[in-house]
Amino acid sequence: MFSFRVKEACILLNLPSGSAVLLSEVLKEALSSKTEISDLPSPQAAVNDIGVYRLTPQEAATVLGLRINLTTS
Question: Which region holds residue 51: left if phi is over 0, alpha if psi is between -120 and 50, else beta?
């Protein structure tokens, strides 16, 4: 189980910068929103789309936050 989580963290850490910034923004917006916004994909669908199935969206956002090359405001 642990090896799958490491593999998925590596997927997130090795995303191209643009994709990582976009995913980070989608997760941040979706996780901070109190209501369901139909224009945004669900946070789980967003991480599933890049091949991350075992990490929760919150965990994925945490891993993306550890990247040093993301410049989000």
Answer: left
pTM of the model: 0.82
The residues, any chain, with a CB within 8 Å of residue 10's CB and separated by 6 or more, are none
Render the burial of 17-30: b for 16+ CB within 10 Å, e for the rest.
eeebbebbebbeeb
Length of the chain, please? 73
- 7-49 pLDDT, tens digit per residue, is 999 999 999 999 999 999 999 988 887 666 566 678 999 999 9
Every domain of the chain and the residues it spans = 2-65
Tokens of 44: 């789980």
CB 8 within 8 A of CB 23: no
Say how many Å lie between the first and final Cα of the chain, rounded: 34
